[in-house]
């Protein structure tokens, strides 16, 4: 009579659970991103629609390089300027400086690094300016908005709009001097909506390009090479503890994490 092997039933429960947890972990950043954008959309819905036009989830081609695309969370067009808004749904303490390539997120004893969103949104602002041209890009304002779950400990210069989402309406309301005509506002809105890439495959390609760039960045850092200038990465100690930085400092301010 063949020997029967008893397999604990808990294994049959654990394996699907592990798969679900792995999938959830992979989707978590995207889910958090959508949640943050949803919060900002609700704030922007409070704006007077006769004065402000909101365009969400904009994907536009890069004009100068003629290759690649820029994905922008929210654009608000008005006679008072064009507001480019980057949303971040992070929790914990956020630390860094305006000039840093990366910032640090601290949740209890865990520390994670992520790209400086001010730099990220600067790229979005430039993409919008290139798209609109000198005539229409009269006043383009960058805003980076974090949800209330984050605690911002970031050194920025006066006038830099690094804010909590609850302050978004007040930040936009600060601009009350008309710099664009009604006709220019309509031109800008038509150009943004007309240039927006809605094709699913092209949007998927954009995501893959971002993922590939991040992977190449990490691989370069892992080799001990500065991805910004090609210098050697060395260990340093700073205000927020130990970190890896470029040996070409102060010419290069790249830091690679704790």
TrEMBL record:
Listed A to Z, the keywords are: Membrane, Transmembrane, Transmembrane helix
Taxonomy, superkingdom: Bacteria
Q: Does the keyword DNA-binding apply?
A: no
Name of the featured protein: NERD domain-containing protein
The record's Gene3D superfamilies line, in alphabetical order, gives:
Bacterial Topoisomerase I, domain 1
Give a yes or no for keyword Metal-binding in this entry.
Answer: no
Annotated transmembrane regions: 6-24
InterPro entries reported for this sequence: NERD (IPR011528), Topo_IA_Znf (IPR013498)
Domain annotation NERD: ranges:
32-151
| One Pfam family it belongs to | NERD
- State the organism named in the record: Alicyclobacillus fastidiosus
């Amino acid at each position: 009579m063949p020997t029967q092997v008893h397999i604990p039933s808990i294994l049959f429960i654990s394996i699907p659970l592990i798969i679900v947890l792995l999938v959830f972990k992979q989707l978590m950043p995207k889910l958090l991103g959508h949640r943050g954008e949803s919060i900002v959309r609700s704030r922007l819905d409070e704006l007077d629609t006769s004065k402000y036009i909101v365009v969400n989830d904009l994907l536009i081609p890069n004009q100068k390089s003629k290759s690649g695309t820029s994905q922008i969370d929210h654009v608000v067009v008005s006679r008072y300027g064009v507001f480019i808004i980057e949303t971040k749904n992070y929790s914990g303490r956020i630390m860094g400086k305006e000039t840093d390539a990366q910032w640090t997120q601290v949740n209890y004893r865990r520390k994670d690094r992520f790209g400086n969103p001010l730099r990220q949104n600067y790229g979005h602002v430039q993409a919008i300016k290139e798209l609109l041209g000198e005539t229409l890009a009269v006043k383009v304002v960058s805003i980076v908005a974090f949800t209330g779950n984050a605690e911002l400990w970031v050194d920025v210069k006066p006038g830099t709009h690094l804010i909590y989402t609850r302050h978004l309406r007040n930040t936009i309301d600060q601009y009350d001097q008309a710099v664009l005509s009604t006709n220019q506002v309509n031109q800008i809105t038509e150009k943004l909506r007309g240039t927006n890439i809605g094709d699913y495959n092209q949007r998927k390609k954009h995501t893959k390009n971002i993922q590939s760039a991040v992977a190449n960045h990490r691989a370069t850092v892992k080799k001990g090479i500065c991805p910004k200038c090609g210098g050697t990465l060395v260990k340093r100690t700073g205000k927020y503890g130990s970190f890896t930085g470029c040996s070409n400092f102060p010419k290069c301010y790249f830091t690679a994490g704790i």
